[in-house]
Each structure stands twice: as C-alpha cells, then as structure tokens.
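--- STAGE predict ---
source: upstream dedup step, 1 unique chain passed
mode: sequence only
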Amino acid sequence: MIFNKLDIDSMISYKLDIDSMISYKLDIDSMISYKLDIDSMISYKLDIDSMISYKLDIDSMISYKLDIDSMISYKLDIDSMTSYKLDIDSMISYKLDIDSMTSYKLDIDSMISTS
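--- STAGE serialize ---
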C-alpha cells in the first residue's frame, strides 16, 4: 500500500492534533490538581480559624478565671474588713469595761467621801 505524501501529512497532522489534545488534557489535569491544592489550603485556613476560635475561647476562660480570682480577692478584702470590724467591736467592748470600772471607782469614791 502506497501512501501519497498528502495522506502522510494529514496523518502527521492528525497525530499532532491528538498530541495537542493530550497536552490539553494534561493542562486540565494540572488545573484540577491546582484546584485541589487551593481546596486543601482553604481547608487548612479553616483549621487555623477554628484554632484561633478555640484560642479565643481559652482566652475568655482565662479572663473569666481572672474575674473569679478578683472576686475571691474581693471576698478576702471583705473578710479582712469583717475581721477589722470585730477588732473595733472588741475595742468598744473593752471601752465599756473601762467605763464600768470608772463607774465602779466613782462608787467607791462616793462611799469614801460619805464615810
């Protein structure tokens, strides 16, 4: 079978068309691969966002703990003021004792003076 040159040229041209379609398919495959890479980067960004959100939750818990600590500190201050009030109460009680002793002394003085 003898091919004429035009037939051979057309077959070569056809093969080149097939090659370009294969090349085109490879380009599409690389674009799909690139899209998958972008999707994985988006997924990675979402993971980072969730970690940031988790960190924010931890920060708010730490802030909440600091608030609780300040309330405990405030309670301790109130307890010390209560203790201070008890000291003042005991000093008032002591003053009342001194007053009663003074009153007793006055009674003794009046008994001495009447005798």
